[in-house]
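BACKBONE GEOMETRY TOKENS:
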Amino acid sequence: MCGAELKKEGDICKNCYDRYIKEEALKLDNEQEVFRINRKYSPKFNLLKNGEIVVLEIIIILAALSAYRLPIAILIILLCVIAFGAWMFFNKVRAKGTKTIFYETKLKYQAKYLFVNREEIVPYNEIKDMAYFQSRSQKMCKIGDIRFYTKGFLSGLTISDIPEIEESFNKMRDIINSTR
């Protein structure tokens, strides 16, 4: 996996094998869960975040009402409402399928929805720093994003749309710092 030359075909690089064993050990849930946080679905935030889509759909609806006969206008309005409803439903499913679990020595981020099945495990000793961020619309909805900076350039993990961001951030920071 690392590109090292091996003596014969079928040999396994010691460094790659050690890394593989370490990654497999991290995947085991043999530690006690300390804290769990789920992504929050906020219809208000989704409307604010996707404001341009809402405005575009309103313009399309107004144009349909003024330019087409009533049956065609009703069909266009119905399609806009269905498309926007599907988008809101997708965001709800996405939020419901995303969670972060804090164990004694690691955190596990899981995102499972529709065609996505992502899992990341980050040992606390690899976290160099962490910070939380809030956009204006997130502040209005009392949610935010937390970024964990790990070793390496541009590496890390961001968990989005966390409720009660300051409380959650402080709890996570305390958990991680207690292992150092």
